[in-house]
Amino acid sequence: YAKVEGESNSSDAEATPEQPHEEQLEQLQEQQLQEQPGQQQQQQQPPEQQPQARTAGKKTKKKTRFIYHIGPSKTATTTVQDDLKDLSENGMLIRDKYMFWGRGHSGNQHNGTKLRVLGGLWENDCLRSYAEYRNQTRETPQEDGSLNASSQLAAESSIGIPPCIQRIRHLLDTMHEDGISLILSDEAYSYRARFGRTAIYRNQEYLANIQHILKDWDITILATYRRPVEWMLSCIKESNSKDLTGTGENAKWAAEGGVKPRQTWGMLTSWVQMSISSCETEEFCKTQTNKYVFSDASHYLLEKAGFNFEFLTVHGKEHISQQLMCSIITDAPASCQFLRGKSEGTVTNARSMAWYNYNAIVYAAAHRGLITKGMQANKTRIEMADDLAKYHSRVINKTLADLPLACPKETELEQMLNFSLGVEKRMFPELYVSPQGELEHRAAFHKVAITKREFCSVDAKRLFAHQESWEGFLQSLNQTWEGDETKKRDWSIRDDWEHMDSWEYVLEK
Fold it and tell me: Which domain covers residue 299, as residue numbers?
């Protein structure tokens, strides 16, 4: 919706005859929908006495902001949403003339309409109906601005303004008139399904229609950056955390239908291969897991469609919620001040990557009979894993690095680091060359790969060699195993281990 070169700056009142006729049709249908018996006389008024749909005065009115935070998952989205919920409930947001709707917090409403109706704005069914409506009304209006015959017929056809769009526009109009800006946050809008060839982010018509609906708003699409490999590790952690409440497959003993935990390096390399393949086969790079898509893809597609796109970062010195309410949003002083005075919240997911190795050890020990059926009846798998983690780290003061491990080769680690650096360099070249860029990225990768050994898996064959009981096994943990015997790896904890195929990812890609 850029201004055409040479376009005049006439007032809205002067521009009304040139108004695209589909907007005229929308206004006409809305008037018909809202029409009451007593309004007929008002419609008979001369044009100069009727209120204009748009006035020259409105053009100078400050636009309300529409900020849409799309995640992706595993980038502190829950933290942002919880802080926004607090700001909403304690009245700080509305004091700043903002309202929030987000994943898990959909009860907020304005003038009796719940904000969750806005979800339809990004749904294929709603946008498809609106596209059909707009496509039927694209004939050129007559010189005097009135609708021609075909457009008049279209206005009376069975395809009207979709109800979902009517609800959305009604809510947006009332909020805009009241000067209320919006913050939406839902990481589901970075799920893989959004990036299919017929899905919303690849459909330029749908994206243009969203902009048309929000033409009176200052739109910002917001995503969060996290170093790619760290992001993938968090996704692996989530996968292995599935249903750890006692009923899920990662929480049950094998006899109850439990499964072997998936190992980190195999999952990680398969996702990296998928991501690299997308760079070679698509018009854009799509860093991805089996469920989520990284912010590089949404950034490319939505910025290409004309949206203003900005980033938060989990690696900044400023808390991520403060980045949103103090830096991205600069007209919310009450909310900003509240967040800056707020103490750090409690970490809700305290399990480390090492814990999932302890869960794998417990599963393998039960498979070998070291954890007897009687022991399994008395304690859950999760309880046994918690006990083992506490004993190993707190009682005998050992770490994962003290166990016999099977780890990626140095050349494989270098390839993985190059992949992660390459994504950052492509997305944020200025950050990459800054002091907070490549050097910090390399240091963080070294900590994960070498110090914490988070890419490694426990070598079950060496770990359980000559062990006949769980008690004897616990006593054996006082020793430290040396080296990484790659030729003697035992992948019995997970039979479907696959080594990374030969691949290269250099920084220039």
Answer: 61-228+290-340
**What per-residue confidence (pLDDT) applies to 26?**
53
Together in a domain, 127 and 195:
yes
Give yes or no: residues 479 and 386 share one domain.
yes
Quick check: is 379 in a domain? yes
Same-domain pairing of 303 and 180: yes
CA contacts within 13 A on the Cβ side of 230: 20
Distance CA 196, CA 296 (A): 15
Secondary structure (DSSP) of 102-145: ETTB---EETTEEGGGGGGGG-HHHHHHHHHHHHTT-SPPPTTS
Closest-CA residue to 183 (of 73, 108, 90): 108
CATH of residue 116's domain is 3.40.50
What pLDDT is recorded for position 260? Answer: 84
Highest mean pLDDT among 127-131, 180-184, 247-251: 180-184
Question: Looking at residue 45, what is its pLDDT?
Answer: 39
Q: 135 Cβ partners below 8 Å, 6+ apart?
A: none
Measured between alpha carbons, how far is 136 from 37 in angstroms, rounded to an integer? 29
The predicted model gives 217-230 an average pLDDT of 98
pLDDT in tens, 36-50: 444 444 444 333 333
CA–CA separation, 475 and 398 (whole Å)? 13
pTM of the model: 0.79
CB 308 within 8 A of CB 207: no
Contact 113, 170 (CB under 8 A): yes
| pLDDT tens per residue, range 60-105 | 466 899 999 999 999 999 999 999 999 999 999 999 999 999 987 8
- Coil, strand or helix at 275: helix
Strands of the sheet containing 309-313, edge to edge, are 98-102, 181-185, 64-69, 217-225, 309-313
Structure tokens at 409: 């080769």
